[in-house]
Design a protein that fits this description.
Layout lengths: L1 E4 L22 E2 L6 H12 L5 E6 L1 H12 L4 E7 L26 H11 L8 H13 L5 H24 L7 E6 L7 H12 L5 E6 L6 H4 L1 H14 L1
Parallel strand pairs: 1-2, 1-3, 3-4, 4-5, 5-6
Helix pairs in contact: 1-2, 2-5, 3-4
Length: about 240
């Protein structure tokens, strides 16, 4: 069973993410919480009792999937991290300004269109249905405040990443892992995706790295046929 975990942090990401961002896939779940620990627990609650699941996580969802594979490997069959800048190694480089200064009012349809266009290589996937779903999601989400982001979310993110890479170096992730990256992702670099894969592959031999051409930060929307071909081939092989 595949379970899809969306990325995005309400109030921080200029587009309102949620299960709708995956398009027409089954078992896309809602992530809740203001820390990585709380978000991970919300995913765990959603899959408890469903047998080992193949977790497919976008951005922060990828880190949540890896974290759950560390904490409860009995619940996880495999992990696929998609454009997971949250899980990728980060340094002291120049901050990414792709989503800086979004147009106001924030989370309006036009503001969210701007954000989705900024993170995409192709804009053809940004249709009215997606924009309406994003507007509806924004209306029901509680935005994270800048204070909560700095004092709660960021420290929890750094703690989770530190533990993740420590496990990668020592005992290793206990389940098969796959990393999927967009060739033209404006939020991260190809090298970050490759180094994420290398970190996972240190101790987990069943690991794969794939690049989706002509795709940005949302390869599953921009090139859905190529994305699902890679995803299903990996699932069939484990």
């Amino acid at each position: 069973m595949m379970v899809f975990i969306h990325g995005g942090v309400p109030g921080i990401t200029p587009y309102a993410s949620g299960p709708h961002i995956w398009g027409k896939v089954p078992n896309a779940i809602e992530v809740r919480g203001q820390t990585v620990d709380a978000m991970t627990q919300s995913v765990r609650q959603a899959i408890e009792g469903k047998g080992p699941c193949h977790l497919v996580g976008h951005d922060i969802g990828g880190l949540l999937a890896f974290t759950l594979a560390i904490e409860a490997p009995q619940l996880v069959r495999a992990v696929t991290a998609v454009a997971s800048v949250a899980a990728a190694p980060s340094g002291d480089g120049v901050p990414n300004v792709t989503l800086a200064h979004p147009p106001k009012p924030l989370w309006s349809k036009e503001s969210q269109r701007w954000a989705l266009e900024r993170v995409s290589y192709s804009h053809s996937h940004i249709d009215e249905a997606l924009l309406q779903a994003c507007v509806a999601a924004a209306a029901k989400q509680t935005p994270m405040t800048p204070e909560a982001y700095e004092n709660e979310f960021v420290p929890s993110l750094m703690k989770a990443k530190s533990r993740f890479y420590e496990i990668c170096r020592t005992e290793g992730i206990k389940v098969p892992c796959q990393v999927i990256w967009g060739s033209h992702d404006p939020l991260t670099t190809f090298d970050q995706g490759l180094w994420l894969f290398r970190g996972v592959a240190q101790k987990q031999r069943v690991s794969q790295f794939h690049v989706i051409n002509r795709a940005g930060a949302l390869p599953f929307r921009e090139e859905p046929a190529a994305f699902h071909q890679v995803l299903n081939a990996f699932a069939d092989g484990i």
